[in-house]
Specification:
The protein is mainly α. The protein has 3 helices and no strands. The chain is globular and about 35 Å long.
């Protein structure tokens, strides 16, 4: 599935969270959304945060998806 808009991108995040759980979903730093960019600058992560909140994600879940899970994984792998 390819995201064509920010709404599609957030929908895919929510779908992944439903399938594997919030502790296992993180946004990649390349912003490619499966090779079709839906964001052009990191400053747009605020829009993703807002969209996730609008879908009912709490702040802990949002923080996990927007970086916390990636940091946790890197710490576990690199020590």
């Amino acid at each position: 599935i390819t995201s064509q808009s920010l709404a599609d991108f957030v929908e895919e995040i929510a779908r992944l969270v439903e399938v594997v759980g919030v502790d296992h979903v993180a946004i990649g730093t390349d912003m490619d959304a499966n090779y079709r960019p839906v964001m052009t600058a990191y400053s747009e992560f605020g829009a993703v945060e807002t969209a996730l909140a609008d879908r009912g994600f709490d702040q802990h879940e949002i923080d996990a998806v927007l970086g916390g899970n990636a940091v946790r994984l890197i710490a576990a792998v690199c020590g």
